[in-house]
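ok posting inputs for the nicotinamide-adenine-dinucleotide job
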Amino acid sequence: MERIETDVCVIGAGSGGLSVAAGAVQMGARVVLVEGGRMGGDCLNYGCVPSKALIAAAKQAHALRSGARFGIAPAEPEIDYAAVKDHVRHAIDTIAPVDSQERFEGLGVGVLREWGHFISETELQAGDHVIRARRFVIATGSSPLVPPIEGLDGVPYYTNETIFDLREKPEHLIIIGGGNIGIEMAQAHARLGSRVTVIEGAEVLSRDDADAREIVLARVRAEGVEIVEGQQAERISGQPGEITVETGQGRHTGSHLLVAVGRSVNVAQLDLDKAGVSHGRAVEVDDRLRTSNRRIYAVGDAAGRMQFTHVAGYHGGVVIRSLLFGLPARAKQSHIPWTTYTDPELAQVGPTEAQARERWGDAVEVVRANYDESDRAIAEGRPEGFVKVMVVKGKPVGATIVGAQAGELIGMWALAISAGLKMSAISTAVLPYPTLMELNKRAAGAYFSPRLFDNAWVKRIVGAVQRFVP
Ligand SMILES: Cc1cc2nc3c(=O)[nH]c(=O)nc-3n(C[C@H](O)[C@H](O)[C@H](O)COP(=O)(O)OP(=O)(O)OC[C@H]3O[C@@H](n4cnc5c(N)ncnc54)[C@H](O)[C@@H]3O)c2cc1C
Ligand SMILES: NC(=O)c1ccc[n+]([C@@H]2O[C@H](COP(=O)([O-])OP(=O)(O)OC[C@H]3O[C@@H](n4cnc5c(N)ncnc54)[C@H](O)[C@@H]3O)[C@@H](O)[C@H]2O)c1
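and the output
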């Protein structure tokens, strides 16, 4: 058994763990990084990168079919599904060096390719190594939740860890779960030529704004995806190529099955009890991301909060400030955006309209700009969607955007909220014409218009000033 002494030991080389390791080593700490699976974690290998690459291919196919509004004859694309998967693999392989063992060793990080588990409050065992560290960071992420649905273990099924390796186009893909994964994958597969049925036990994209969801759902349905809401998958039967999912209200048979019903945090393997770390389904952390053992932090999906790559990265920054500089840095949630990469995209930062009204009552004002008011959206034939901003005392507290490039547009509101900017900062910004970004400015303008144009005082002052202006 080889013993290693270090300042920081990071468990998990996904988005969260890599951010901590890279930051800490470059600021002079001795860092050991322990990774049992693939460097890069979920996002690179089974999550964001392959899903966005597949979505990009699907978008290309959709563009060929939908040229009519530009006067371009629509054509049914010939799709080589295996070649689409080559594109997905190429995207992963191109990004992989950034997250690689070689790059991190080059930065000075000691990388151990082993599964780790705690053996005491200050020690982790990883293969033949025992690592004693002044601080540990748990960044073990999450895995696809496999629900206890009767019959599931008797049929072949895919999760996000296997679907991107499938090289034959599914004739009819049944997806259980209408969350981000379910809906992104549903639209992408439909555009790539599969018949798709989504079975959702509650509401599709239930964390998002109701008006925005409707726009996304209408489009996804119009593209041929069958969406069944309010029906739990209860029983599964069949054989390869013919799988039946039964809900209380009906039966749905397809050729392939994708299970996307949420995530299960990777804690079981860690022996957290030996380290004195409290946990439920996720590692329990305080606002500073410290666990019940003050020497051990948790970041990213493992910390059981919002499960996004940029959140894992943000957590990494918070933890670095705390463990390297002893600063009381805290992780907030109010300024964190997220985007569902359907077409149209759906992006959110802060509370939705319903959540804001519940929290602030009449003190919240909701302003809106519609895509059909944007010259750019009209020119590009993309007039569907809106920007909606929730404002309290002149400051934005939340924003919802549904429409083309919503994930890019939300950045302005994420910045405004995190920097505590007022609506006037957005309304007075000069933005290039014609861009979709101007919709943000238009929404901010909608906040000031009634104050300026329907205001008797403003009219009186202008009248008075005009009398004296030569
Ligand atoms: C299909 C899909 C699409 C997604 N799309 C997006 C998106 O578009 N945008 C977005 O922001 N987020 C997206 N996400 C979410 C995003 O992937 C996760 O939030 C992010 O990867 C979390 O990073 P992490 O570092 O916490 O964990 P992970 O990336 O899961 O990394 C954890 C690492 O720890 C390792 N590990 C686990 N246990 C141990 C152990 N005991 N010892 C050693 N190593 C261990 C694992 O092997 C893994 O490599 C998507 C997720 C999925 C599944
Ligand atoms: N664009 C992005 O940023 C992106 C994309 C994909 C995933 N992610 C992250 O990964 C997480 C996991 O995604 P997900 O889609 O697996 O989970 P999710 O929690 O978002 O959605 C799971 C859905 O499955 C439904 N469900 C559960 N059991 C069911 C059953 N038996 N029958 C029918 N429906 C059932 C739930 O009601 C829920 O709507 C997301 O919450 C998000 O944090 C992010």
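notes: The CA atoms of residues 305 and 343 lie 26 Å apart. The chain has three domains: 2-39+100-143+264-325, 152-262, 337-453.
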